[in-house]
Amino acid sequence: MTRFISGRTPTTNAEAFERALVVTPGGVNSPVRAFRSVGGTPVFLASGHGPYVTDVEGKEYVDLVGQWGPALLGHAHPDVIAAAHAAVDRGLGFGAVSTGEVELAELVLDRLTLTSADGAERRGIEKLRLVSTGTEATMTAIRLARGATGRPLLVKFAGHYHGHSDSLLSEAGSGIATLGIPGSAGITPETAAQTIVIPYNDEDALAEVFTSHGDRIAAVITEAAAANMGVVPPKPGFNRLLADTAHAHGALLIADEVMTGFRSTAAGWWGLEEAAGTGYDADLTTFGKIIGGGLPLAGLGGRAEILDLLAPLGPVYQAGTLSGNPVAVATGAAMLRGAGPEVYGQLPRVARTIADGLSSALSAEGVAHTVAWAGSQFSIFFRDSPPQNYAEAQAQDTWRFGPFFHAMLEHGVSLPPSVYEAWFVSAAHDDAAVERVLAAAAPAARAAAAATPAL
Q1: 221-240 pLDDT, tens per residue?
Q2: Vertex 109, ends 106 and 111: CA angle to 5°?
Q3: Main location per UniProt (predicted)?
């Protein structure tokens, strides 16, 4: 029977979406892809190379989504593709240990080992367990924290997104922010009650929650720099305060670097803060996106004494048939090897040129806005000043983003389809790609200026 199989490749985005709606909820496999917050039909991508992606209609766009972060070197980088092909030739997976898993873990640990001028060594993590998704990494981190402390409660920040596991969807960012959903149906009150949500960058709220519940809190989980309510970096020293406060009460700090890991610096956001003199000691750190080179792979790192509580050594169970997939670890290793000092020097320069050009165009049209930064990640808020927390991120002219987004898309630039997402550049964004973005700035700014709030 071929009831649902058309046998023909769609040639337009509208046709592709119509076909997808029949067999897939909402026509998408991740909510933000549905264009619900910007309106219109999603763009169905067929290929990508360097800084560009091409849709099923053959239209090419400069890509500022970058697989939501993993495309650090650009799409289809030759070294990453070669590593994938070589791994595929050896077999797609074994369900057993392989040397590639060890090699990738060593690369990650090397990057998170820094030596100061006086020879002192700082290590961000001591061991790494590979999993398949960022959601799985953060879910495991929470289970591990509860197993290590024997405590039930988790503290998270409003607007921070750590995947879609039940205990983490209270006042989350990313697609939850875009869709305006405070949590999710299907999560029991008992589960929700084990997560305490407080405002981000709020020292007083942090102190109060530990005063009230300190002996029952297993961990604080935080995005090392928030990027799922738009980019909202921590105040200087805030991550260190989180670690110090948690440790003073016998709790752990979980730093979510699924998005920031290996993007801001070779040692991620942790390395950036080390260099700035605001270094902090996270007990557990989660990684994803770049670590897999674009394939499904993530990791959970931390102190050896805590990681060793995982099975088979300890009582905290975690397993995965696809964990440490040999193709994914090969592409991840190739990505990390290709991300040297020249890449980390280029990314902020390219990002700043693009952001400055867009900001100038918006200012010329009298559109209130601000650009917020976390390393080379950035986002534009339609408000006068950078937000410090989720409430401030929501207090903007969100209705300007849809027309702005579609004008950029029409002029060949693909942005994240939500005002609450970070923008990404890659090492492949050369002068020609940047010029194409800047050429789209003026018409997009005019569209934003002409927008009106929905009634």
Answers
A1: 999 999 999 999 999 999 99
A2: 110
A3: cytoplasm
